[in-house]
Amino acid sequence: MAESLAYLGVGFQNAFAPVNFLMVVLGLAIGILAGVLPGITMLNSIVLVLPFTYLMGIVPALLLMIGIYCGGVFGGSITAILFNIPGDPMNVPTAWEGHPLNRQGRARYALGLAIMASAIGGLASALCLAFFAPPFARFALSFSTVEFFSVVVFGLASVSVLGHASATGALISLLAGMFLGTVGTEAQYGVERFTFGVPFLRTGVDFVTVLIGLFAIGEILDQLAGPSTQTAAVTKTRSVPRLPLLDLWPLRGSLIRGTAVGIAVGGLAGAGATVSSFVAYGLEKQVSRDPERFGKGHAGGLVAAESANNGSTGGAMIHLLTLGIPGSAATAVMMGVFLIHGIQPGPLLFTRQPEQVYTLFAGMILANVLMIGLGFLAAVVFAALMRVPASILNTLIVVFCFIGAFALRNDMADVWLTMLFGVLGFVMRRWDLPVPPMVMGIILGPMAEQYFLTSMVSHGNDLSVFVTRPVSAVALGLAAAAVAWAVWRSQRQPVGETAEVPNPTKGSPTPGAR
Amino acid sequence: MTRLAPALAPLAGLVLALGLLAATRGLDDLAREGQLGPGFWPRLVLVGLATVCALRVVVAWRGAWAHRVADPDAAPLARGRLAIAVGLILLYVIAVPVLGFPLATAGFIAAFMIVAGARQARGVAAAAVGGTIGLLYLFVRVVYLPLPKGAGPLEAVTLSLYRLLGIF
Fold first, then answer.
1. DSSP state of A192
2. HSE-CB of B51 using CA atoms within 13 angstroms
3. pLDDT tens digits for range A280-294
4. CA angle A208, A211, A214 (to 5 degrees)
5. Which of A309, A286, A448 has its CA nearest to residue A375?
6. Which residues contact A284 (CB under 8 A, 6 or more apart)?
7. Which of B41, B68, B85 sits opposite A224 (nearest CB)?
8. How many Å apart are CA A157 and CA B87, to the nearest integer?
9. Please, which residues bridge with residue A185 across strands?
10. In sequence order, what are the residues at sequence separation of 6 or more whose Cβ sits closer than 8 angstroms to the Cβ of residue B149?
11. Which of the residues A17, A23, A209, B92 has an alpha carbon 20 to 30 A from that of A500?
């Protein structure tokens, strides 16, 4: 604990360095903006600023990402409350309760609750990360490739379960991503796999091209294929939020439960903020004394969902920093930043670069504190920015995607791949194939292969080693249980009813409209 | 057709997975005695992919997914606008190395904005010119990204533009 506090002190000194502080503020502003603007998700914005980080040092680059991450998770709640348009799927429960509060003339109250719940949830999560990540990292150091393989498999399996109505759709997406991860020159034997004589495929499919294409271009095409996209629906509002510190006290139970769920669910590899907010909202409904008020402006539901959203950020970072396994698509991009700067996240990060790690923790704490002020300003200002025509936004996003892909290797082949993955992303959305599992597959697939083959070489091709080592056995057991639960859920789901997370771009997310 | 439509995508996935599975032949030729070769992992993944696709084809054929694709409440697909948007994006990628980034981008921004619903000519022109200049300053002058300058005489046009804007 004393060691953690000492390092955290150094981390705060670094985080308050002008450039680093500026990156946190800039990241928060970009994240909140991305969360507010239609068609741009927090993940899109992280991907879009990726080219800017190439020339930065690792610490400012990651602080920028962390700022976007924390701000982006919160940002969508503003439009969810004011306009019933969640910026991200994770903000849907916020729209369910926040917008009815707005219609009751309590927009200031709802916005204030969302800002404070997000900040407190994120702060608690960051503190947990700062004090509990080191013991977790020490525990993780005792892992061999056997345990790492099993943990990666658990991460991959949980992707197929959480947040997706169709288990087979998620599995197809996941396996397709894992296949894409095998394209290129194989590391052990130097054999080319699935390159078909195309030179640029020898170095493999860069996951950034897949990310940009699937998420950004695919989303734009999906929007263009729908009804008119000229402007987002805007409700005129003059509501200025207030910070309801006293109003939050009666809701402390919801806040604590939401934060705890956020940290715990965020800590599951492959889960993330969307799952956290839905689980917290569902739990709140279960324990509430007045569940009949849910969907009609229940402040407890709003607080639980918002605190869980931001509470998940620290949990998701634990996997990335201690095991080198991204717990969500956003942290997968952050892992890309580490790799671009030649640093491999994982247990050794805490012994080799502790100051950098604790600077990130300090940055995360700082980001959540600063979010109160910036979130307050954003709620006032962004109502006006909602009037920016989608036609301008979408066009500039395509150009940014072009630049982001080209900047990878100054090669037009990456641009072509990005655009092709964009079309694939659109097709996947239309055919009920979730996009995130493919991204997880292309990132985690090569890791799983490497761990599996190394384990087989070390243990003479004895597969039983995966079930005779306790941690491995537990991880594989959980993975099997996750897949079994997904299949069971799919079987129970009646035809004509989907449990899928509502898409904020397609129709009203209010419970009554579902 | 409503029964067939949901089965088409997984069927294509199944055929692709089986085709790629055939392409894994020969990958293990260099494998050392008693060790798994470089073809093992992709083969495992492709078998899994083919199996799940086959399962989904069967379920789709039985009609369980028909409601997902043929949702009567779903908004109609704007096929024309979608086709033009995809065409414009592909044309943009083709045009950049030929025309150079500034000219191709200005043209793309104007065209794509119109497809995306913009109707005011002045706004479109301002966004096309202003957006392109802003991007050039940001990425060429500040980030030093060597964006494509175009082929033949158009490269000279791009360089002249850079000089005019004070980027070079």
1. E
2. 8
3. 887 787 778 887 788
4. 145
5. A309
6. A254, A257, A258, A298, A300, A301, A304, A305
7. B85
8. 37
9. A192
10. B100, B101, B155, B158, B159
11. A209
Strands A192-193 and A184-185: antiparallel
Best CA proximity match to A397, nearest among B101, B108, B122 = B108
Q: What distance in Å separates the CA atoms of residue B48 and residue B41, rounded to the nearest whole number?
A: 11
**pLDDT higher than threshold 50 for residue B87:** yes
Measure the CA dihedral A140/A146/A149/A151, to 10°: -40
| Structure tokens that stand for B147 in this block | 């964006």
Q: What is the H or E stretch that residue A494 is in? A: none
Q: Assign residue B75 a region: left if phi > 0, alpha if psi is -120 to 50, beta otherwise? A: beta
Q: Mean pLDDT check: name the lowest of A10-24, A137-151, A482-496, B137-151.
A: A482-496
Total count of residues recorded for chain B: 168
Within an 8 Å CB–CB cutoff, is residue B65 touching chain A? yes
Q: Which residues contact B107 (CB under 8 A, 6 or more apart)?
A: B95, B99, B128
ipTM given for this complex = 0.89
CA geometry: angle A236, A238, A240, nearest 5 deg: 135
- CB distance A466 to A146 below 8 Å: yes
Give the residue with greater pLDDT, A148 vs A453: A453
Q: Tell me how far apart the alpha carbons of residues A347 and B18 are, in angstroms, rounded to a whole number.
A: 39
Do the Cβ atoms of A226 and B75 come within 8 Å? yes
Flag whether residue A217 sits within 8 Å of chain B, measured between CB atoms. yes
Tell which residue, A132, A62, A68, A25, has the closest CA to residue A359.
A62
CB-based contact A390 B38, cutoff 8 Å: no
Output the CA torsion sign for B61, B63, B65, B70: positive
Q: What is the mean pLDDT of chain A?
A: 79
Burial of A46 by CB count in 10 Å (0-12 exposed, 13-18 middle, 19+ buried)?
Answer: buried
Which ranges in A267-344 belong to alpha helices (H)? 273-287, 299-318, 329-340
Count of positions (residues) in chain A: 514
Block residue for tokens 């509060």: A101
Chain B's closest residue to A218, CA to CA, is B86
Q: Which residue has the tokens 């494509």?
A: B148
> How many whole angstroms separate alpha carbon A397 and alpha carbon A331?
21
Token digits for A369?
């504190």
Pairwise CA distance, residues A503 & A88, whole Å: 8
Q: What is the DSSP letter of A324?
A: S
Q: Does A171 touch chain B (CB under 8 A)?
A: yes
CA A277, A280, A282, A285 torsion-angle sign: negative
Q: Which of B46, B85, B136 is nearest to A391 (CA)?
A: B85
Distance CA B42, CA A266 (A): 30
Query: How many Å apart are CA B14 and CA B4, to the nearest integer?
Result: 15
pLDDT at B153: 93
- Nearest by CB to A395, which of B30, B39, B109? B109
Residues B109, A506: C-beta atoms closer than 8 Å: no
In the predicted structure, residue B37 carries a pLDDT above the cut 80: yes
**B42: three-class secondary structure by DSSP:** helix
Q: Among A149, A180, A448, which Cα is nearest to B46's?
A: A180
Sign of the CA dihedral running A256, A258, A260, A262: negative
DSSP of B103-164: HHHHHHHHHHHHHTT---HHHHHHHHHHHHHHHHIIIIIIS-------STHHHHHHHHHHHH
In the structure encoding, which two tokens stand for residue A211, read together?
A: 């990310």
Instruction: List Cβ neighbours of A406 (8 Å cut-off, separation of 6 or more).
Output: A412, A414, A415, B145, B147, B148
* Nearest residue to A313 via CA among A70, A63, A120: A70
